[in-house]
From TrEMBL:
Organism: Dicaeum eximium
Domain Translation elongation factor EF1B beta/delta subunit guanine nucleotide exchange per the UniProt entry, residue ranges: 138-224
GO molecular function term, any single one: translation elongation factor activity
Stated family: Belongs to the EF-1-beta/EF-1-delta family.
Any one cellular-component term (Gene Ontology): eukaryotic translation elongation factor 1 complex
Alphabetical UniProt keywords: Elongation factor, Protein biosynthesis
UniProt function note: Catalytic subunit of the guanine nucleotide exchange factor (GEF) (eEF1B subcomplex) of the eukaryotic elongation factor 1 complex (eEF1). Stimulates the exchange of GDP for GTP on elongation factor 1A (eEF1A), probably by displacing GDP from the nucleotide binding pocket in eEF1A.
Comp. bias regions, Acidic residues: 95-112
Domain Elongation factor 1 beta central acidic region eukaryote span(s) in chain numbering: 102-129
Location of the region described as Disordered in the Swiss-Prot/TrEMBL record: 85-115
Subunit field text: EF-1 is composed of 4 subunits: alpha, beta (alpha subunit of the eEF1B subcomplex), delta (beta subunit of the eEF1B subcomplex), and gamma (gamma subunit of the eEF1B subcomplex). Interacts with elongation factor EEF1A1.
Protein name: Elongation factor 1-beta
Amino acid sequence: MGFGDLKSAAGLRVLNDFLADKSYIEGYVPSQADIAVFEAIAAPPPADLFHALRWYNHIKSYEKQKASLPGVKKALGKYGPADVEDTTGAAADSKDDDDIDLFGSDDEEESEEAKKLREERLAQYESKKSKKPAVIAKSSILLDVKPWDDETDMAKLEECVRSIQADGLVWGSSKLVPVGYGIKKLQIQCVVEDDKVGTDMLEERITAFEDYVQSMDVAAFNKI
């Protein structure tokens, strides 16, 4: 197992793919494993390797506490994906040969493997993301619907209000609340999907029953 040469572009790509679904090299907290890999990197990963760069910047913030992090630091080749050969021991000896290799190098082969691994992980991530249900923003609204006078048929008024049907609108409980001089207002609850139903639409539809409704007010509005 291993990352390959972490001073090379191919090694950094393998590290980036490895961290696509992980926060740390081992476990769920920063440890000596992260320090071992961090110290093997010559410079911050480029911006397009965002998983590796995110991890690098995070571990860098522990620079003053690195000696106190848990775990025992092992050889670099003990960390990383199992299907990548550890080439760290031979990296220094082969550097000059790599510079004049006209027929490609192990880095190029690793690049193809890393690319394939990245594509597989991206496909898995997209598949998981597509299966997550979309979050639907909803609100609970309490409406005060006022009649013209004490002779208004409140049962008929409520019937008119509940007759309003729309996608994303569900009527709830209701009650009559005295407002004075024998007049009662209808207080009615509803739940709406924010993208589909608004208070302006409700007011327009409810006050359209002008034989019964004098006005409509929003008594309470809460996000669910």
